[in-house]
Amino acid sequence: MPASRPRVLLNFAELEFWPAWLLRARRNDHARQLATAAWLVRRKADGVYLACLDAQGQASHITPRRTVTGQSSILPDLQQALLRIKRPPSPLPFHALEKRLGSLGLDAEHYARSSGLARMAEPNWLQLAGFDRYRRPLWLQPAAARAWQRMQTAAREDGIVLEAISGYRSHDYQLGIFQRKRARGLAVDAILQVNAAPGFSEHHTGRALDISAPGEPAAEESFEHSPAFAWLCDNAARFGFHLSYPRHNPHGICYEPWHWCHLPHHRFAS
Ligand SMILES: [Zn+2]
Predict the structure, then answer these.
(1) What is the pTM of this model?
(2) Which of 3.90.650.10, 3.40.50.1820, 3.30.1380.10, 1.20.1290.10 is the CATH number of 97-121+128-268?
């Protein structure tokens, strides 16, 4: 295993730079390019791979060429972007939030007022925090990633296995959840009882984590009866994780015993 495999996700308004070793080729003709690339540029709106970058940031197009015409000229500079990881993540400016909500028939101001939820910015970079139940890379802000790994280790020492179900999700990814559910015939109002609108989910911040345990279904209320949940109630606060949506929360969101958020300054709270 190369020593210098990157373990960060570099985040931009419309693009993400993924460490290439974390991605699988979707087409045979991608495989060779991916095998030699350090980074892969992915369009957030639809997950399309746009370009490979070598460690120096030189871009080569992913085929088919027509989907990437002109893209390399607007690629952010890799070396500049890597400077980000010398500092804690900072929030990306909100991008196309009104447009995403409008596509669901929602108004940002009205939704914010009626839900009491705040707009949640994406961070400009994220840390690999391990892998989730489905062996997908788990991205969190660095402090949350460290806290999660420490908490998982502490739980294991107490005989409890904690599994991540979902960490960071982009605004675009959240919109995709709505689009898929609507395509299955669900109304936006019904989806909003389970998912915050794009731009308003704590998962956008890279500090929220859905947790389960082996044998427990993902994101089910029954998790509250598991030994893992009991352990979390007793111990998660020590690691800075708090339950965001308890029963009868004021946001109209269902009780979510699986959803925990890392509050970064908990050590300094009075
Ligand atoms: Zn969640």
Answers:
(1) 0.91
(2) 3.30.1380.10
